[in-house]
Amino acid sequence: MLTSDQTLPGLSLKLSASTKAYLKLGACAGLLAAGELLLKIGATAQPDSPMTHWATWIGIAFYVLNFVAWLEALKTIPVGIAFAVQSIVQLMVPISAWLFLHEQISSGRALGILSVFVGVFLAAAPSAVADERL
Amino acid sequence: MTAFTLFLCLFCQVLVVAGNLLLKHAMAGMDGQGRSRVHTGLWLFAGIALFSLWFFLWLDLLSKYELSQLYAFEGLAPVFLMASAWLILGEKVPLRGWIGVSLIGAGLMLVAGA
What we know:
The complex is a heterodimer of chains A (about 130) and B (about 110).
Chain A: H1 2-45, H2 54-74, H3 79-86, H4 89-100, H5 107-133
Helix pairs in contact in A: 1-2, 1-4, 3-5
Chain B: H1 3-30, H2 37-64, H3 67-70, H4 76-89, H5 95-113
Helix pairs in contact in B: 1-2, 1-4, 4-5
């Protein structure tokens, strides 16, 4: 009885800590994709002076938040796994560009994007090792 | 995409990878892992400088090209990381890494052409 009482709270605490870390990683992906979209909106609306457009500044804020959330998530999640999860952004960005900015994606480009995504996913573990050593 | 645009896309990713590594080392210095303050400050400054250069280059590219085309080049980051570890530290790239690099390279050729 005593052991299970002692183990259970500890276990649930551990689970929630890793769940929190994955939520942060998910937030990173969302912030990064939304940030790119906002920078694109700012750069397209004011090609000569993108810094005068509100979207550019919100994009920058999202980038900074992404950086903070990324560092927080990495306290719990190994870099290799974080890189692998983050590779989904390679798909999120073009899909949101298609959905929200109405960009036309040819079949050739779609195939290329898919190939890059699989490549980044496969290279996540070895590039994380490289990142840790450098 | 013109050859110059392609070069700019590659250069942008070099800046991102180098900037990330510089900031990482600067922050390790701030945690008090035995590096001098001058060193830490230099790394921090260099990292921020590279990111600023990247930011304005990237905004310029974004004003001219589609996001779905440009963003694919972010896939170069793992390639440059592995290449740096190989060139600087002599780290071997495992088969998994080579397959990844090939897929990223082939994908980018398709994206650059389409």
